[in-house]
Design brief:
By secondary structure, the protein is mostly beta strands. Helix content is about 0%, strand content about 45%. The strands form 3 sheets. A 4-stranded antiparallel β-sheet has the order 3-4-5-6, with no helix packed on it. Strand 7 and strand 8 form a beta hairpin. The protein has one domain. The protein is built from no helices and 8 strands.
Length: about 80
């Protein structure tokens, strides 16, 4: 069985700015420009992670349970949507 991605890293200009655990089997990643929040959906972990990674601090804001594989689309004002 192939190991799936379980960490998210920001690599602007080839240097690691930050890293945060995402849970196993990442399905998709999206972010909001206005808030800088990252939304990472992980199927095997059955969770949606909400975080911010920047030069100052890597911060996990929380996780929400999901029902396996999902697609999350980031909206404005810190909102995220699951398209049907």
């Amino acid at each position: 069985m192939q190991r799936s991605c379980d960490r998210f890293r920001i690599l602007p200009k080839g240097r690691v700015v930050g890293s945060i655990p995402t849970g196993a089997s990442v399905d998709n990643i999206d972010c909001t420009e206005d808030t800088g929040l990252l939304y990472v959906a992980a199927a095997e972990a059955a969770q949606l992670m909400i975080a911010r990674i920047d030069d100052a601090e890597d911060r996990l804001y929380g996780t929400n349970p999901t029902k396996g594989d999902v697609c999350i689309v980031a909206g404005t004002n810190g909102c995220a949507y699951e398209p049907k």
